[in-house]
């Protein structure tokens, strides 16, 4: 599924948060959005998953204006793993994952054996099968994040939008989560803070600064010493590892 945005502007309060954002994500591409705190990454992703309406500009999914899709239809196309996933109700882990099936069901339609099968498969994919009966609220931050990924996988969407998906995860689970997502072989758009993780998994990267795209390209093209200095005001050394990926080694401030 391809995804494009054209001239996306967002104003919040008196501030222009996003300024004319154009992106072009091809079918099955894994695209990272990087940029400092407050640069507009989450705001942009919220426009894509329809929590926020841009003040101007258009989002195209499979070359059709997003506004012309029914909300439920959008949920079959795009699933989301966002930064904050607390719920006010204490559902079990299995229930949380089954919620991912709701775009495929009619109102009040009960979960069937196929839904349960999919939910258990997705829990297994993220290594959380043994937690299925636990209450979601009792899980650690990292465990919650893995359950939320399982819920997104259960949605069986063609595009996954991730907002800092590796928040709370230790390094093994950061790599595992990104690896699971990569192997889905679907279109992925992900805000990523860790530039080495971005380098390992992204096909393309958009770098945001103050609400504008200032760089776009492969990790090798974008993750240069100059760009990192420009965006984050941090000095670093770039080393190319044996697998051909760039590795960023930061200098202390
Ligand atoms: N409702 C709002 N009203 C006013 N300003 C807002 C609102 N929501 C977000 N902002 C501002 O918009 C800017 C962009 O926020 P956003 O969350 O998109 O940044 P981000 O790049 O995702 O940051 P982070 O890396 O910290 O998650 C921030 O300066 C934020 O304070």
TrEMBL record:
Segments passing through the bilayer: none
Keyword DNA repair attributed: no
Alphabetically ordered keywords of this record: ATP-binding, Nucleotide-binding, Transport
SUPFAM superfamilies attached to this UniProt entry: P-loop containing nucleoside triphosphate hydrolases (SSF52540)
Location of the ABC transporter domain: 3-235
The keyword Metal-binding belongs to this UniProt entry's keyword annotation: no
InterPro entries tied to this protein: AAA+_ATPase (IPR003593), ABC_transporter-like_ATP-bd (IPR003439), ABC_transporter-like_CS (IPR017871), P-loop_NTPase (IPR027417)
One matching Pfam family: ABC_tran
GO molecular function: ATP binding; ATP hydrolysis activity
Secretion signal span: none
Record-given protein name: ABC transporter ATP-binding protein
Species the sequence originates in: Senegalia massiliensis
């Amino acid at each position: 599924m391809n995804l494009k945005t054209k001239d996306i502007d967002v104003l919040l309060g008196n501030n222009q948060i996003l300024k004319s954002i154009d992106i072009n994500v091809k079918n099955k591409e894994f695209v990272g959005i990087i940029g400092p705190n407050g640069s507009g990454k989450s705001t942009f992703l919220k426009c894509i998953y329809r929590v926020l309406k841009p003040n101007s500009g258009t989002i195209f999914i499979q070359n059709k204006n997003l506004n012309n899709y029914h909300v439920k239809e959008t949920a079959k196309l795009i699933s989301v793993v966002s930064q904050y996933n607390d719920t006010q109700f204490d559902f079990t882990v299995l229930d949380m994952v089954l919620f991912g099936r709701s775009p495929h069901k009619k109102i009040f339609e009960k979960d069937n054996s196929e839904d349960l099968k999919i939910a258990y498969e997705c829990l297994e994919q993220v290594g959380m099968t043994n937690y299925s009966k636990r209450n979601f609220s009792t899980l650690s931050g990292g465990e919650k994040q893995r359950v939320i990924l399982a819920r997104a996988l259960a949605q069986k969407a063609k595009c996954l939008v991730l907002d800092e998906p590796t928040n709370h995860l230790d390094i093994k689970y950061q790599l595992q989560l990104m690896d699971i997502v990569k192997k889905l072989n679907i279109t992925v758009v992900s805000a990523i803070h860790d530039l080495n993780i971005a380098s390992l998994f992204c096909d393309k990267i958009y770098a945001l600064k103050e609400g504008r795209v200032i760089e776009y390209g492969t990790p090798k093209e974008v993750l240069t010493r100059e760009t990192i200095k420009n965006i984050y005001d941090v000095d670093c050394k770039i080393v190319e590892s044996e697998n051909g990926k760039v590795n960023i080694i930061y200098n202390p401030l």
